[in-house]
Amino acid sequence: MTMLEAGSMGAGEGLEPTATLLYNDWYPALRSEKLRGRKMATAMLLGSPLVLGRKRDGSLFAMRDNCPHRGMPLSCGWFDGSTVTCKYHGWSFEPESGQCMEIPSLTRQDTFPARIYANAFPCRESDGYAWVYLPKPGSGRVHMEARAGLAPAPGIPKFSDHFRSAHIEAELPLNIDHGIIGLMDPAHGPFVHQAWWWRSRHSIHEKEKHFEPIPQGFRMSAHAPSANSAPYKLLGIYGQPIETTIDFILPNRRYELIRCGSKWFSSLTTVTPTNANSCRIDVAAAWNILHGAPLVTATVKFFGRRFLRQDQVTMIQQAEGLKFNPSLMLIDDADRPAKWYFALKRARLESEETGRPMVHPMDGPVTLHWRS
Ligand code: FES
Ligand SMILES: [Fe+2]
User: Fold this and answer.
1) Phi, psi dihedrals of residue 28, rounded to the nearest 5°
2) CATH: 3.50.50.60, 3.30.465.10, 2.60.40.1120, 3.90.380.10. Which one for 164-371?
3) Is domain 25-134 annotated with CATH 2.102.10.10?
4) Among 50, 186, 193, 222, which is most buried by a count of CB atoms within 10 Å?
5) Adjacent-strand bridge partners of 170
């Protein structure tokens, strides 16, 4: 049974005013549709300024937005489809590897310094996002040969050839830990997301959910969704059992899959640290339900935006309170997923530090109870 185990979140829980950032992983930098022709775009990821673009062959690149010569933002320079040229002294770079190709001030007597590189990061396109792989600062650049060995950039799992998709985003003025635990918090729903089409606080009832460890995260095992929520009611028109699974995977990904026979709705939500004290939530979804019906995408986006806006407004208000660095608590069972997140994060940081395999903090399936 549920035991009320309120504890303060001091150093032990890891929820510090500034969250530790996880490197050596993929993060969505921006929508890849912004990268067209010779246009470069900038983004901020984990406190690093980036410049991104699309080469003539269609592949994406991401570099730190600082020239290695004297720090000029490379985004102030020029991109001709294959080479990025710095505005200050005209050094030019192959943007995928970051290799410096030309230093105009050198004379014929000078030998070209072969080992000058701008800081370039692996960058891939997936579900309309430019994903950037950020290695731990100071660990050197990710060599071109090593890039093939990286895990593929994340994407929305899809279960048929034809589907629709949509994406929405919101800036959150909180550090990554607050953003993530907000993402997995079941108890705020009836208060923050009150709406006639969703639910009210009077619909709070006891829930029992089963969780299991998965690599780098945990899964809310397949279950019949809450009968009082509108999206699920909508799926009910297919008259088949509805099943939903939610995965959280480090560093910042929440996958939700709803299946009803051959119909599915699948989403990938990420909370990405832009810098130490702010993050951005991106929700990308794909589905094959109501495929022929008009205005489905607009409707999904409309309700999705409203939903996300409710979270955003709440977190803007929360950030006002957090300015004063209050002591905080995590309570069982509703905040247990948040505790797992902190434990997973600690385990991963420890593994990266020691070079030993990551020890998963959960040793088997767990059943949680809460009211929401
Ligand atoms: S600062 Fe970029 S070439 Fe000098
Ligand atoms: Fe929410």
Assistant:
1) -75, 125
2) 3.90.380.10
3) yes
4) 50
5) 281
Answer whether 53's CB lies under 8 Å from 60's CB: yes
How many Å apart are CA 172 and CA 183, to the nearest integer?
11
Ligand 1: which atom is nearest the Cα of residue 90? Answer: 3
- Residue ranges of the chain that CATH labels 2.102.10.10: 25-134
Round to whole Å and give the CA distance between 102 and 94. 10
Q: What are the pLDDT tens digits along the chain (372 aa)? A: 333 344 444 434 556 667 899 999 999 999 999 999 999 999 999 999 999 999 999 999 999 999 999 999 999 999 999 999 999 999 999 999 999 999 999 999 999 887 899 999 999 999 999 999 999 988 888 999 999 999 999 999 999 999 999 999 999 999 999 999 998 999 998 889 876 555 666 778 899 999 999 999 999 998 777 665 655 666 666 777 888 999 999 999 999 999 988 889 999 999 999 999 999 999 999 999 877 777 888 888 888 899 899 999 999 999 999 999 899 999 999 999 999 999 999 999 999 999 999 999 999 999 999 998
φ, ψ at 191 (rounded to 5°): -100, -45
| Segments of the chain assigned to CATH 3.90.380.10 | 164-371
| Ligand 1 pocket, CB under 6 A | 67, 69-70, 72, 86, 88-89, 91
- 188 C-alpha to ligand 2 centroid (Å): 7
The whole-model pTM stands at: 0.92
Question: What distance lies between CA 325 and its chain's CA centroid?
Answer: 25
The contacts of residue 357 (CB under 8 Å, 6+ apart) are 351
How far apart, in whole angstroms, are the C-alpha atoms of residue 340 and residue 362?
8
